[in-house]
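Input chain follows. Return structure tokens only.
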Amino acid sequence: MFATPVPARLTPPRLRHLALRSTMMLGVLGVATAAATARAEPSPALDRVSISVGAFSADPRINIGADTQFGRIDAPESKQSHTTIPRIKADLLIGDRHGLAFDYYRYDKSYTPSLTGDTIINGQPVTGTATANADLKLDLAKLAYKWWLGSGNDTFGIGLGAAYYHASLNGTATGIVNGETATARDSIGEHAFAPLLEVGWRHAFTPDLRMYAEASGIKKNGGRINGHIYGGNIGVEWFPFKNIGFVADYGISKIKLHRDSERDADLNVRLTGPSAYVKVRF
């Protein structure tokens, strides 16, 4: 006959060891689960999705030099009249620390400088100084992928992306040639893409009252067109309604471009002034 097996009995030390191992395993499992499912709340200074529409009220300072089909034309720095430039911005938060930022504005105003240098109209040198009646258009669009550092009331952002800019000048030059008034018309225009770097800081006094500071740099080397575009601004956001608010800031943009081709051209533009927006967030 076979002896009936006797069930193994756990001694107190083995029982305590097994209980300890089980507790440790449950703890590790709990930590792993929490780590896998935990999601840090984004900073109250950021919105999941936002769109800002408004205008940049700028004081432009412009300097242009270009080789035209009629000869070289140089315009000294000209302080244009105060102008309003439409502007649109959009931000999208991906997760809690990443996002996309878009910014676009267009300067499209008349430009009436006095022309100096070796100004030539219809193949003949101008006697004295000529004048121009022109239209200057400048488009600037920026798209950046941003990393946000910090999840409290203060957050710092670093953005990398690309910028597109297009500049054109269409106009008429008038001057005295051989004792008579002569007129010439010409048009120049260039566009290019360039790498973009952005940095920013945002602070939330409350979820409905915030301030921010931003700076960006665009640098283009090589090719037919090169130069740089720098900008920065500081502002305040206020949301009297849950999803609709108002933004006011003060900023500066400095644009310096050079076209290196058979007909060289230089464009220097500085825009400074306040901006105001209506901002919608979701």
